Every structure is written in structure tokens, then in C-alpha cells.
Amino acid sequence: MQATRQQILDFLRQRGEGSVRDLGAHLNLTPTGVRQHLAILERESYVVSRELRGHVGRPALTYRLTSTAEALYPKSYGELASALLESARLTLRDEEFERLVDGAAETLASPHLPVLTTLPLAQRVEAACSALRQQDVVVTCEPDGSGGFVLIERTCPFRDAASRHVTVCGMHEALIGRLAGMKATLVSTLASGADRCVYHLVPATVGADRSA
């Protein structure tokens, strides 16, 4: 991000919103200079404007950040998730903690299931990958030649928390199984130092037979 435009974003994030005059005074820029930067930020979907009512003459606009701009600022979700998991692990019995993690997988999967459950198996696996991509996961999936699939993730949406709590990997394993409608087995993980997370997917009945 260019330095002046970053200053504009920082100002708007601190103040909530601001006008060309506000930004000009803060940055010691002319109104024309401020508008040029704002035009670029608006074109790139970092800011939006609204008209202030009650002004005579040229419409007065005020600007605020979009969710795209907010995403540029770091969030401590990984630390929060780790703290909550640690608190739950220390407070709950083992079986209660397992139910908590399993319930989290169900909660994450449930918005996608009404569509996924209507699809043939191969289409459902690909749709499951699409659902993961919506979470900015870089993922591919290929048939394994024996009726199952190998799903490979190059990025992990929970990497910070997973590096501290192996349970998170188990939750994600359960999530992938629910999305794909198959038994998912985690083979390797980014959290343990591998260069990818690898899951082996087999039809649920096959998984049940193998575990019997």
C-alpha cells in the first residue's frame, strides 16, 4: 500500500469516517491531492463514500473503510481460539472436550450440507473443496484409484491454533469428512512441519469396515 493511502486508511479506521477537509488537514494535502488518493482507494474497494445532507453547493462527501480494507489489519483470532481451547481443555472432561470439538466441526459444516448432500459423491467432494476455498484455503483433490480421494491443503485456516492444539487438526479432519460425506483421515499436517496437509477420503461404509 502506498504510504499516503495507508495513512488515509489508518485515519479513517481510527475516526470511523472523514471528509476531504478532515484528511487534508491531517495529511497536509490539498483537496485535489486527497481526492486523487481517495479515488484510487474507492476504485480498489478500500473506501466508500456517502453524501452529507444540509450542504449548499458541491455535495460534501464523507468516507469510511470497507470490509476489504478492514481485512488489511491483523486480527488475533488465532490467539483467541488458542486461549478458548486451552480454557476448555482445562475445564472439561476429555469426553466433553471431544464433543465440543466435534460440535464445532458440525457447526462449520452445516451451512453447506443442504446443497452438498444432494450431490453425487465425486461432485460432492469437489463442492467440499469449493467450500474450503471460500475460507481462502488452497486445496486440491484427486481420486486415489480405489474409490477414495486424496485431498491436499497448501494453506491452513487455523494454523496458529493448530500449532498449539492438535485437537484443531482433528476438528478440521471431522469438518472435511462431513463436507465430503466420507471418512477423512489426516495423513500429514502443516502444523507439524510438513509442506501440506494431506487427507485420505474413503466412503464412510469402507471406513467403518476397516475400523471394525
How is the secondary structure organized here?
Blueprint: H1 3-15, E1 18-19, H2 20-27, H3 31-43, E2 47-52, E3 60-65, H4 67-70, H5 77-91, H6 94-109, H7 113-116, H8 121-133, E4 139-143, E5 149-153, H9 159-164, H10 166-180, E6 182-188, E7 197-203, H11 204-211
Task: Please name the CATH architecture of the largest domain.
Answer: Alpha-Beta Complex
User: How many separate helices?
Assistant: 11
Order of helices and strands: HEHHEEHHHHHEEHHEEH
**CATH top level class name of the largest domain:** Alpha Beta
Fraction of residues in helix = 40-55%
Instruction: Count up the domains.
Output: 2
Shape: elongated
Main sheet characteristics: 4 strands, antiparallel
What's the mean pLDDT score?
A: 84
Approximate strand percentage: 15-25%
